[in-house]
Amino acid sequence: MKCHDGDTARTMGSIGSNDGEKLVVSWGAGSEDTLTKADPSELPTGLPELPAP
Q: Where do the DSSP E strands lie in the chain?
């Protein structure tokens, strides 16, 4: 991936684990992100606004 702001902390990653509910992405720079499956009947709250194109 290539970030618009030039950040390179998350440019190359791989799947660390995936159990169908949580996905862990291990990034080349050493950090990990855990993504959790959302309930499809509920929209998440507290998300930031999308930037204008």
A: 13-18, 22-27, 32-36
